[in-house]
Amino acid sequence: FALEAHTHSKMLNQELLTLENPVFCCYIFWATVLVVKMLLMSLLTALQRFRYKIFPNEEDLFFKNIEVQFDDPHVERVRRAHRNDMENILPYFIMSLIYICTNPTEAVACNLFRVAAVARILHTLVYAVYPVPQPARIIAFATMMLITFYMAAVVALRTLSFI
């Protein structure tokens, strides 16, 4: 936590959650990348459904001689990856915003945001797009989780005296 030295001079007279703060701007950029990535997961699910002709509703049956199906491994792999995104990226978004409010060092914060986003993109690639053996997926998964825990620890330590 020594790297997270509080920089008083830079932000004394300005708000932290504005476009004047480069840390917040970096967060906005990488959060946008992750939102787009999550939206693309819905498209990837649809692509898999059409590719393998797997549809969950009667009205979705575009092809003749197919039935409603719920358990295709290709579709379900993408859906699990998408659910994993929601379970991990959404808490990360909240924790990151709270972390920004502690006025972290710009280089540390921006690198955390970059690494977390790249890790989630890699997680999707090795899980849903081109599955590879472990430990690739667990490393990508754990990277964002550890970053989120790190930010939580910084926030907790900086606010502990207020409880």
UniProtKB/TrEMBL annotation:
UniProt keywords, alphabetically: Acetylation, Endoplasmic reticulum, Membrane, Mitochondrion, Mitochondrion outer membrane, Transferase, Transmembrane, Transmembrane helix
Localisation per UniProt entry: Endoplasmic reticulum membrane; Mitochondrion outer membrane
One Pfam family hit: MAPEG
Gene3D superfamilies xref list: Membrane associated eicosanoid/glutathione metabolism-like domain
InterPro entries reported in the protein's UniProt record: MAPEG-like_dom_sf, Membr-assoc_MAPEG, MGST1-like
Segments traversing the membrane: 27-47, 136-157
Example of a GO MF term: glutathione transferase activity
Keyword Transcription part of the UniProt annotation: no
Enzyme Commission numbers on file: 2.5.1.18
Entry membrane topology: Multi-pass membrane protein
Keyword Mitochondrion assigned: yes
Primary localization class, coarse: endoplasmic reticulum
Top enzyme category: transferase
Substrates-to-products reaction catalysed: RX + glutathione = an S-substituted glutathione + a halide anion + H(+)
Gene Ontology cellular component list: endoplasmic reticulum membrane; mitochondrial outer membrane
Function: Conjugation of reduced glutathione to a wide number of exogenous and endogenous hydrophobic electrophiles.
Subunit structure: Homotrimer; The trimer binds only one molecule of glutathione.
UniProt family annotation: Belongs to the MAPEG family.
Name by which UniProt lists this protein: Microsomal glutathione S-transferase 1
Organism: Drosophila busckii
